[in-house]
Amino acid sequence: MPFLLSRLGSNLFLRNGLLACGMAFTLSFTASPGVAQSETVESSEGSFSMPTLQVGTAADYVPFEFKEPGEDEIIGFDIDVVTYIAQQLGFALQIQDAEFGQLLPAVAAGELDFAIAAITPTLAREQTLAFSEPYYISRHAFVSRQSDPIRTLTDIVGKTVVVQRGSVQETALLQEVGTGLDVDVMAVATTNEMVTAVRELQADVAIVEELVAVAYLENNPTLIMDVLGELDPSPIAIAFPQGSPYLERFNTVIADMKESGELQQLARQWFTANP
């Protein structure tokens, strides 16, 4: 493998109401982390106040976070994971849906208490953010056309590669283009736009997580998926502002979920491949 592609393979990693009493969704980020709002919750035992954390996600990443057609509710593996954590810690969650590229800057700026959107920690991201312990390990995949398959990293030379704006794939590819890699990088806002670009001949290949590729290929029979064995699987974690008062509490519950099998059970419910 050429040096540039070998280095790219080592750098390329993947990426996103009130839970427990309903959900609300908004596109604006207004809350301050570390100063959770309170919500009055009605129960059979009376009313009580529950702190409400502001959570960001990007609901176009099946099966991690997404909306069913015609529905407003965000569902998926990530949503179930964070709902379970919040229930264990006594928090309510206000889920805010936005483009993935908006999430991490909003967390770093203190506009969200945290973000969960199949996010991979990187050294660059750790300069402005803090990350939970990983709660899942994900493999990477190419999505390309059956008529023009892209199966390995060497196959992308001279091709147009579509990535999600703000993702580590975009950063890694642009860095390699700057040092001589012959690849055209096309950045779009959503996963659906990535798949459409490949299907409509606007791009040659998309780079996504394996389970996301499996989900999108169900409705795109002209496309194929190839798992990138050249790349190590990547951890995914929850992104917090640096100094967050919630990080260690979340880590404690994540450790308990691993030990009890709760994480594995949730994965089996949502994933059709590599649970």
Task: Please describe the structure with a list of short key phrases separated by commas or semicolons.
D-Maltodextrin-Binding Protein, domain 2; single chain; alpha/beta; disordered N terminus; 2 domains; 275 residues; globular; seven-stranded mixed sheet; 15 strands; five-stranded mixed sheet; 28% strand
SSE blueprint:
Elements: H1 3-11, E1 37-43, E2 46-57, E3 60-61, E4 65-67, E5 74-75, H2 77-89, E6 92-97, H3 100-108, E7 114-119, E8 129-131, E9 136-138, E10 140-145, E11 160-164, H4 168-178, E12 184-188, H5 191-199, E13 205-209, H6 210-217, E14 223-227, E15 234-241, H7 247-260, H8 262-270
Parallel strand pairs: 2-6, 2-7, 11-12, 11-13
Antiparallel strand pairs: 1-2, 3-4, 4-5, 7-15, 8-15, 9-15, 10-13, 10-14
Q: How would you describe what is shown here?
A:
Residues 1-36 and 38-48 have low confidence and may be disordered. The protein folds into 2 domains: 3-12 and 138-227, 3-Layer(aba) Sandwich (D-Maltodextrin-Binding Protein, domain 2), CATH 3.40.190.10; 37-137 and 235-270, D-Maltodextrin-Binding Protein, domain 2. Helix 2 crosses helix 7. It is built from 8 helices and 15 strands. It has helices at 3-11, 77-89, 100-108, 168-178, 191-199, 210-217, 247-260, 262-270, and strands at 37-43, 46-57, 60-61, 65-67, 74-75, 92-97, 114-119, 129-131, 136-138, 140-145, 160-164, 184-188, 205-209, 223-227, 234-241. It is globular, with a radius of gyration of 19 Å. Helix content is 30%, strand content 28%. Strands 1, 2, 6, 7, 8, 9 and 15 form a 7-stranded mixed sheet that branches. By secondary structure, it is an alpha/beta fold.
